[in-house]
Amino acid sequence: MSAHSTAHSFVYLASQSPRRQELLRQLGVRYELLLPRPDEDAEALEAELPGELADAYVVRVCALKAQAARDRLVTGGHAAAPILVADTTVTIDGLILGKPLHEDDAVAMLERLVGREHEVLTAIAVVDAEGALLEPVLSRSTVRFAAVERAALQRYAATGEPLGKAGAYGIQGRAAEFIERIDGSYSGIMGLPLCETAALLRVARVEF
Description:
By secondary structure, the chain is α/β, with parallel strands linked by helices. It has one domain: Maf protein, CATH 3.90.950.10. Helices cover 32% and strands 21% of the residues. The chain has helices spanning 18-27, 54-75, 103-113, 150-158, 186-190, 194-203, and strands at residues 11-13, 31-33, 83-92, 95-97, 117-127, 137-145, 179-183. Strand 1 (11-13), helix 1 and strand 2 (31-33) form a beta-alpha-beta unit. Helix 3 crosses helix 4 (150-158). The radius of gyration is 17 Å and the shape is globular. It is an enzyme of class 3 (hydrolase).
């Protein structure tokens, strides 16, 4: 019987995001972290290509993260099991808004979003236990921010919450006060669309 046809009791999660861990627990999925080693340049995987569209960018980065995680599993001597990876980006006016470098950068990003709609794209991929990359899936959601004064954005940025988050905000945190409406997947905006994730994990024979 092949590794792919055998049921697995857990999945490796190749993400440092506590939100993704929380969402997997919500599904009842057991997971073990498979994080980048100190010698890996994880940030380099997220570099944009010239003229790259946000959809293509987030799927490509997700696939690169999946390959890196697979290499990590093999070289680290870990037990065979499926690997789950994800990447989230925020886009508006054709621009990809990554993670802010500092508070002022966060305020500048948020000022682009206020009073308007933007898209949140989360790509997810699973590497099955045999090492095959399942076709990445893209979750697309639209978020509308209220018209918010700069002072409120500065107060939010000063909390440190925007740092490390695509588009300089987390929907599950204090930024919820700015959000008038969403159309799409709330969990996808958080960073792991649960409907699509559950479907991929079942294809990879992960039990939950």
